[in-house]
Amino acid sequence: MLEPSWTYLAELARRIDPAARELNPRPMKGGASTRRFFRVTWGNEGASAVAMFVPGAPTHEIHKDPRQARWPFLEVRDLLADRGIRVPKIFADGTDRGWLVVEDLGDDTVANFLIRRPEKKRDIYRMAVRDLARAQKQLSTLPDSSIIKSRAFDHDLLRWEIDHFLEWGILARGIPLSADDRALFERVADRLADKIASWPRGFVHRDYQSRNLMVVSRDGEPIELAWIDFQDALLGPRVYDLVALLSDSYQEFDVGFIEERLLEYAEQSGLAPGERGQLRREFDFVTVQRKLKDAGRFIFIDRSHANPSFLGFVEPTIQKARAAIERLSDDPDMRTLGALLDRVLGW
Question: Staple 249 to which of 46, 234, 305, 317, CB 3.0 to 4.6 Å?
Answer without folding.
Answer: 317
